[in-house]
Every structure is written in structure tokens, then in C-alpha cells.
């Protein structure tokens, strides 16, 4: 089995549906209890982000998008250090894979960012 969640999700869309619905059910319950929730899953496309944003709005929760958008070189330098000291059961990421992942990620547009109650963009 491939340990990389991006490759796994790409091969089997049903897995994304099951995992995201499970995570959302826990997040929704937590939001109804008045606790903050951080979703770091399924946020590669505007469609996915919009799904979670509108669901949170239906629960009267405020929403915030935090975009981490450092340059490719910064990401690769961090991954090289990570790959040198991988903990057990952690998959390495190749530079070619990082390029593929970056190409698949849909950067939020200005219009999308402004649909969120708050947004933060970090470029380093």
C-alpha cells in the first residue's frame, strides 16, 4: 500500500469521500460545541475548500483560510531536511513528486480568499 496520501487519494476517490465525511462529522460536532476546528485535509482545490467553508457557515461558524505558499525552493529545502531524518512509517517525497503536487494544488484566487471570514497568506 502506498503511504503517500496524495497518491492514495488520486487512485481511489472513494477513500477521499469516506475520510472527508468522517473528518467532517467530527469537525461538525466539535463546532456545534463551540470549539475551534482546524481542517488540514481535502483542501487542494477550490471545490474542496468551498465544501468545508459552506458546511461551517451552515453551522454558523466563522471561517478562516490559512494559505502557506512559500517558494518551491523553500519547500524543497525543508523536504530535503525532512527526508534525511524520516521517522518510522514516514514516506520520503522526491523533488519530482513535490513538483507534481504543486501543479495539482489550486491556489486560492483573490475572490475565493474574500469569501472566507478571515484569511492569512504566508509566503515564507
Question: Which terms would index this structure?
Answer:
124 residues, mainly alpha, Rossmann fold, 6 helices, 2 strands
Number of domain modules: 1
Report on the biggest sheet: 2 strands, parallel
Number of helices: 6
**Which CATH architecture would you pick?**
3-Layer(aba) Sandwich
β-strand percent reads 5-15%
Q: What structural class do you assign from the helix and strand content?
A: mainly alpha
**What is the strand arrangement across the widest sheet?**
1-2
Spans of at least 5 consecutive residues with low confidence: none
Gross geometry: globular
CATH topology: Rossmann fold
User: In which range does the helix fraction lie?
Assistant: 55-70%
Measured between the Cα atoms of the first and last residue, the distance is 33 Å
Average pLDDT over all residues: 89
What value does the Rg take, in angstroms? 16 Å
CATH level-4 homologous superfamily? P-loop containing nucleotide triphosphate hydrolases
User: How many strand elements?
Assistant: 2
**Name of the CATH class:** Alpha Beta
What is the string of helix and strand elements? HHHEHHHE
Pfam family, one: AAA_33
Protein name: Kinase
Organism: Kribbella hippodromi
InterPro entries: P-loop_NTPase
Amino acid at each position: 500500500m502506498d503511504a503517500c496520501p496524495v497518491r492514495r487519494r488520486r487512485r481511489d476517490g472513494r477513500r477521499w469521500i469516506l475520510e472527508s465525511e468522517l473528518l467532517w462529522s467530527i469537525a461538525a460536532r466539535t463546532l456545534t460545541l463551540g470549539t475551534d476546528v482546524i481542517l488540514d485535509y481535502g483542501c487542494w482545490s477550490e471545490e474542496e475548500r468551498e465544501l468545508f467553508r459552506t458546511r461551517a457557515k451552515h453551522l454558523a461558524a466563522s471561517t478562516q483560510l490559512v494559505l502557506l505558499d512559500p517558494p518551491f525552493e523553500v519547500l524543497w529545502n525543508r523536504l530535503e531536511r525532512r527526508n534525511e531524518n524520516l521517522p518510522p512509517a514516514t514516506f520520503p517525497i522526491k523533488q519530482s513528486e513535490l513538483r507534481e503536487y504543486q501543479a495539482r494544488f489550486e491556489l486560492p484566487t483573490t475572490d475565493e480568499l474574500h469569501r472566507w471570514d478571515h484569511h492569512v497568506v504566508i509566503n515564507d
